[in-house]
Design a protein that fits this description.
mainly alpha; Annexin V, domain 1; 19 helices; about 60% helix; globular
């Protein structure tokens, strides 16, 4: 159940128990297939996977739950004018998908795959292991461009499929990459055309760089991330420092404003929060407690005190999961993440 934040309004159904994905799924299930498909076409691949998975897992929905979702949706859109109501940005912000790696159901996949994705964009719809197998024997520079282009979370999963020695080479290439020239894009596109009959333009693309490397590192398994960072440091100390400065870690949540923390708490299950806070410092704990209702914060404190020993790997995994939710909310404009280097930017 999502965490209770401070509020003075009583609602017939506690909608805070629903994640953003659940609410989007319920709203889409309320529509006919054609209308739902027209909305889903505007979502990103990861968002479709999450919302589609939630839609497929829902069996029976009570009237109270559906009514509560509709009521919140109507309240939210009343904050906007009719200007731009049909834009993709509005749809994304309203029906944003939440944390999770659930596979999209077949119907949603067919709708999106039929909307014109081709070439490099086609890889966004594929399982990371499948992408890894496709590019495994390609030139390292081609592999670098693919990893720099795709979503950091997907790229991290792809990178995890490569041998340890290859990961180091690719990560350093990504960090040093600033611009992809037309010839390289044509070479990459030729490979994709053989697989998907796609095509791409000839303009240079601004992908890669230290920020891209840091984003991918954020999504890697803790063991792989630590080992890879040590290897980068051994090869290039300055590069390692720059990447670490751009990485967002769990303790940085203490720098998020109260409104952003409250948005985050609505999306994080209680059990996940408990595990993550087990290894958090007092400043972050206090920040979290301050943005919960008195009753919820007292219950959380009691649960933390009653919790027995927990493996460090479980704590780190919980913190990574919450950071993934925070990044998704940041992309939706619901909270702002501050990079380690001190510069405010949306991740």
């Amino acid at each position: 159940m999502a965490n209770e934040v401070a509020t003075t309004d009583e609602k017939p159904f506690d909608i805070t128990s629903l994640s953003g994905t659940d609410k989007a799924a319920i709203l889409l299930l309320s529509l006919n297939e054609q209308d739902a498909a027209s909305i889903i076409r505007h979502l990103e691949p990861k968002q479709v996977q999450r919302v589609g998975g939630a839609m497929a897992s829902m069996k029976e929905l009570s009237n109270d739950k559906v009514t509560a979702v509709h009521r919140q949706f109507l309240t939210d859109i009343q904050k906007y004018t009719s200007i731009g109501m049909g834009s993709a940005d509005f749809v994304r912000n309203t029906l944003i998908a939440a944390l999770g790696e659930d596979k999209a159901n077949n119907l949603v996949d067919q709708i999106l795959m039929g909307s014109g994705s081709r070439g490099l964009d086609s890889l966004k719809w594929m399982d990371p292991r499948q992408v890894a197998s496709i590019i495994l024997n390609e030139h390292p520079q081609i592999q670098t461009i693919v990893l720099s282009y795709l979503d950091p979370e997907q790229s991290a999963e792809i990178l995890s499929q490569f041998p340890e020695r290859v990961r180091l080479d690719l990560m350093m290439r990504i960090a040093n990459l600033e611009e992809v020239q037309p010839a390289a894009l044509h070479e990459l596109n030729d490979i994709m055309e053989k697989q998907f009959a796609g095509q791409a333009g000839a303009q240079a693309a601004k992908i890669g760089g230290m920020k891209a490397a840091a984003d991918i590192m954020n999504y890697l398994d803790n063991n792989i991330e630590g080992l890879l960072m040590d290897q980068i440091r051994d090869n290039d100390e300055e590069m390692a420092v720059q990447i670490e400065d751009l990485m967002f870690v769990f303790e940085n949540l203490a720098e998020v404003d109260d409104r952003g923390i409250q948005s985050l708490l609505r999306e994080v299950p209680q059990e996940l929060l408990q595990k993550a806070l087990k290894g958090a410092d007092d400043m972050l704990r206090e920040k979290i407690m301050r943005n919960m209702s008195k009753r919820a914060s007292e219950l959380l404190m009691d649960d933390l005190e009653a919790m027995g020993p927990i493996r460090v790997s479980d704590v780190e995994a919980a913190q990574k999961e919450i950071l993934s939710i925070a990044r998704r909310l940041s992309e939706a404009g619901e909270l702002m993440l501050n990079g380690g280097g001190g510069q405010d930017e949306y991740l």
